[in-house]
Every structure is written in C-alpha cells, then in structure tokens.
Give the backbone structure.
Amino acid sequence: MTSISPLSSWNSAPSRASAATWNRSDASAPSSASAPSTIVALSPESVNGSAAAGALVKPPMVWESATRDKVSEAMTKSFSSYTFGGRFSGLGAAMLGQVKLGNYNFSQAMRQPPPSTTPNVYAASGIAPGSLHGNGEDRVALSITTRSGVEVKLSLDSQGDGLAVNMTTSGELSDAEASALGDLAKGFQAAIDGLGQSTPKIKLEGLMQFDQQVLESVKLHAEVKVRGEMDGVQTLDFQADGAQRKVSFSGVAGSLDLKVDASQLNTLGSKQQQAKALDSYMKQFDQAASRGHGDAGLVAMLKDSFTALHSNAAAPQAATDTPATGKWRLAAEDKSILTGLADFSASVSQAVKFSNPMRSSEKDGFNYEVSQKTEQAGASQDERSIRQRQQSKLSASFHQTLVPGVPLRLTANTDSQNYTYHQIEDTASSDAQVAYKDGKMVKASLRQEGNQSEHVMKYFLGKLESDKTTPGNYSVLRDLLPVLGPYRTGEVGMTPEKKAEQRLQAMQTLSDDVLLQSYAGQTISLWQADVQPEEDGTAAA
C-alpha cells in the first residue's frame, strides 16, 4: 500500500512529543488553524492498472489530517460499521484518553468517496472530510468545565460516507484536571455504547463519578438517527453540576425527564439509607410498569438514570449550626423521617398507539410521574421545621387478549374484536414532617395515602359484554412523637445505653416506613392500630 498526498497540502506528521508540546503551549488555538492534509492510499489494482475496464473501483479513503494516533486508529477500525454504536465504538474513550498525554486540541475526519469507473487519486482531494464536523446524521457532544473555568469540548459525527471527531480546550489544563478528564474515558464510552444498542439504554454511572473537587460540570448531548421500520431521531441530554443533575430522552418509544436537586446536601442520608430508598423506588417503578403495561425499555431507562443521578452524592460530615449546604443542621430524629435521597422529579411518557381500527377512541399509552420535595423553614435552629413530600401518579391504558398466550391482532373485522380494554388511574403520596419550639420537638407526623382505579371493558365479537371499575384506596396518619419526642413512655428504669439502643432501632424502622408506598399491601398491616386521619390532615402535636 502506497500513500500519496497533494504537495500543496502536505504537512509532515509531528512526533508525539512535539504534538504534546504544541498542545500545552497553544491550547487556546483552534485545531483547524493549520492547513488540512489529505492522505490518499493507492490500491495495488489501481497502481498496476489491472482493474477490469468499466468496473466500479472503490476510491481510497480521504483523511483530514496526516497525523496518526490512537483516535485515528479507532476511527479506521470502527468505520466499516454503519450503526451508531459500531461507528463510535472505542472512539469516546480514545479521545479522552489523549488528554492524559497532553493532546487535548485536535481534529480528525475520514471520508469514503463514491465508487468510480475512472479512478483518479488526485480528484479525491476535492472532497473535504472536515465538512463532516457538526453535520453528522449521528452525533455526540461532550462538554466539561473545570473548577478553574477551562471548558473542554468533544464532538463525534457520523454519516454514511464519513466519520469526524474534534476536541478543543479554552485554556491550559493542570495535571489534576487532565487526570480527572482522562478518568471519565470509560464512562463516556459506556454512555455512547448504551445509546447505540438496538434497545437504547441510558448508561451514565461512569460520567456521574466525575471528581467534583476538580471538575465543575459535565454535559452530554447525543442524537441518533433511527433506521428501520420506524424512522426517527433519538436524543439524549445529560447535565450534572453542583446545583442540579438532569436527564432527558426522546425517541420512537417515548420520552423521559428526570431532575435531581443537588443543592441541599444536609438532607441526604447515609449510603445505606440511600441504597435502601433506591431499592424501594426501583420496586415502585416495576410495580407501575407491570400494572400499566409500560414499555420495558423506557422503564429500564428510568431505573438506570434514576440510580445514576443519585450516585456520587454524600451528606456533609461537619456538624455546624449553619451549614453551607442547607438551611439548618438536621438531627438524627429529623433525618429519620426523610428518605435520604436528594429531591427529584421524574416522568416517563410512552408514545401513544391506536391499535384498534374499529374504535379510534381507544389508545395504548403509559404516563408515570414521581417526585420528592423537601422544605426547611423556621426563624432559627431551635424553631425549625422540616417537611418532605413524595408523590406518584400513573395513567395508563392498554388492550389485552381474552386468551392468555394468544397474540391480540385487532382489525376492522368483528371476528378479531375479542379483548379487554383497561384504563388505569393511580396516585400515591407520603407526607412526613417534624417541628421544634425552644429547641424541643413539638410535632412529628407521617401521612400516607394511595388511590387506585382500574376501568375494564370486555368485548366479544365486537360487542360490549361488561364494563367494570375497580377502586382501591388507603389512608394512614401516624403521630410520631411517641417515637421521636423527648418524653417517651416505657423507659422507666432503663439504662442510658438501653434507651439509646431502643431509640436508634425505632428511628431505623421509621426510615423504612416513610418511603413512598404506591401499592402498600405489604406494609399497611403494620399500622392498623394507628389513629385514623383527621379531617384537616394534620398530625396530633
């Protein structure tokens, strides 16, 4: 194989050492400042003139730059794939991997000219690989800002005949910053690979592990063209910084939005408490998906992104009266009524389908919302109050066959109209609060409610045979002062150690009970002896 480059655009490839030196000294200079090089590789057939007359000849690949590094090698290996995941396989990791080598300003692109019956290696130079930057059918952009204010931008673009990558920095990177960026290489690649699967997945755990002492924020944007029976575009946006974390996804199956408030660190619980709350919410999501026949891929995205965005978050260790990460310093009793998770809001909306041509009013859909909000108020530490509310809402509708195991195929023929049509409307809430006066707890309560409704219409040979609505609800109010208050009965004669042990066990049990229960059949029995809710919904003081 022989390489030829037009003389007017030839720049000899610098050594790795000189390239690293240039990048560190001229980090702010755009990589496109130098004249692009075009490398053309001649095949033996074209050199020897042995190609059959009139036969189409595949022209050699055209490159933007003559420089060869691990990024160029990865591009060469992945180019043969026409799928998003295949084209970008290993590229994200290779790009961030260059940062640790001091190479953080570079641009590379490759393009395959169309076959021709009259091969002309010099004509190929008229095709500009660099025009691919920012114009790919599939694209990924990563933006990272350091604590010192340096912004690092990476972009990957792909279309049928070409592939392009680019990386720029707005200033000089310290060794610590370069190391922190390089540590995100695997996480960046995992995010790309997840989105490139046949059933897209949101894999952000690696990116969420960024060093918050060195890096200020991480942002990711990806667009993928969906090819096949249902053409469209899938988009993913992710952002994480000291104030918030958020993910949004939109695709053929539906959409997802999730936001996490990262500003009130004083309300966070221990890793064990957070893990317990996450596990509880995973079960809530699965229950909602099962009851509402939600799209498995979308619900999996919700679970993965929910877990990722709540990772790498820890409560402050210093016990100060006025913490910078929250309004008040919270006592162990306060935290026992909290989930331990940062506040959030999440929603999943499945693309609506109309699967019954005989009844256009019947639709198949799934919409699920869940949230948590914590409020801290009061004039001082001794007069503080804390309230945390959790809510969920499910609205779903779907068709189901009358014969288990036999697929439902609804047509305009009445013989196919044998099914049940389900409409689900569920809500659930949990409201926990404590209040202090003169430094002593004077109020502590927990209210949990749930309402379910399932409307089912049964059709046989197109005729309505039954129409039934099944309701379900529960409502419980607990006065928590006997558990958390300063004066507890049954402690006469106990040693201080025994009192402390009993109190700790009670608070640990309570931290389980405050978790949202959308379908609380397994826990409602624990509260049968509790008082019934009052009309105004307030707990006894």
